[in-house]
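We modelled the chain as a single entity of 508 amino acids. Its sequence is:
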Amino acid sequence: MFYVPLYFEVLRSRPLMVVWMATLAQAALWLAVPMVFYAAPPGELPQLMAVGHEFPLSSDVGPPLAYWLAEIAFRAAGLFGVYALSQLCVVVTYWCVFALGRAIVGATHAAMAVLLMLGISVFTVPTPDFGPPILATALWAVALLEYWRAVMQGRRRSWYAFGAAAVLILLTSDAALVLLGTLAVFTAVTGRGRAALRAIEPRIVALVLIVFLIPHLFWLAGAGGDFVPALRRLRDASAAADNTVGWLWVVCALVLVHAGLAILVLLASGWPQSRGNPVPAIVRSPVDPFAATFVKVFALAPPVLASIAAVLAGDRLPPGGAAPLLVLSGLAVVLAAGDAVELHHQRILGFAWAGLLLAPAIFVPVVIVLLPWITGTELKIAQPASAMGRFFGESFERRTGHPLAVVSGDARTAALVALTAPSRPSVYFEADPRRSPSVTAAEIREKGAVVVWLAADASPAPPAEIHAQFPDLVAEVPHTFKRPMRGRLPPLRVGWGMIRPANAPTVR
């Protein structure tokens, strides 16, 4: 006698509903968690917002589209808008994977592929940290779906949708050459790909992509994408071991982010073995060989090529982040499972999936409360960003009679102040001025600035590198901010100094 939990029966009969419920639940959860529990934006988001505030066109940050969109979202709805934009990218990614999978393996198996993506960590916990990898993930998913519709289903208008997504990838990600290059090679070496190129639409798209490739290469060069020294190192036999270790490190990192997916697959495959009731199989029609090749190529080739590119660049992470490279991982696993999939341990499997969804979100407030007490470790998301921005913004305006226009010093601290100060000042990255091309020394003299740094004690002396950059800085006594949860952490002291605007009156 078969026993099937209700949620698996819904998966079989209403796969589209399951996909939307799972996708929207995850998006709502990771929209609520940062809004409720984060005292400061996570990861590199403050620096991204600081750069995006200037709407850069040429800088060392790489393709700028994600910076522009983050700034637009922030101006529209504050940090809620930025977090919502990030979760919208996740929703678009999941929907495109489902739509592509439905055309290849059927709706039920496509829904299973989407559910498996929850076990890939880059699609869950890091998503509030919006940036080029999150945006590129959604765009790459759209590009794959529209390419499939154009080549396999003969939808000629889909070439234009694909072209738009590909152009936006060039404007977004350092990994664009890896992603689109793989697709170009696949088109050239497959019969169906070459046949699709006979139409006029893909030729138009190709010309447009060539035009946008020029600024993309310019941005890569500005961001330090010079492979010549790396290519020279490849010719050095003594560097072979280091290159191999570096490549294995990147590959292992890409494998480890699939840990949750591996747990779900092991449970579904019947491990550990049990003497339960027989399991009904979820059967699909045989998959077209070209479709199977398509999924395998784009699930495996981009990660492999990106890992090689990381070694060439001397990095430990793939260019453009891991998320865009793993869009088809879930679909590839479902495809490899065969035409008849038996889901064992269905009750436990359901609880495991719910645990992967809820446990990280529950873990966030627990870590925020306990980690400062247990290890004395400071979390970036627990820094009192609002208090910092309010204090420095009001202090500058009270003393000079002018709104704060420029913040500099320690990159993250300055970015937090700029993001939360009432006047929304610009950030001058003194260590790399190319990241803030609109802020000049003349503007700092005219409008003034606040320079901030993390201070270990109450001494007002700035760090040597800041003093060298701003020799006329008038340092103040470091200000101590109250942490949301101090625990065993030392006081949060922020050293600061002012550069008064030209001809500013003395106001107290």
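As a brief sanity check on the tokenised model: The mean pLDDT is 91. The first helix runs from residue 6 to 13.
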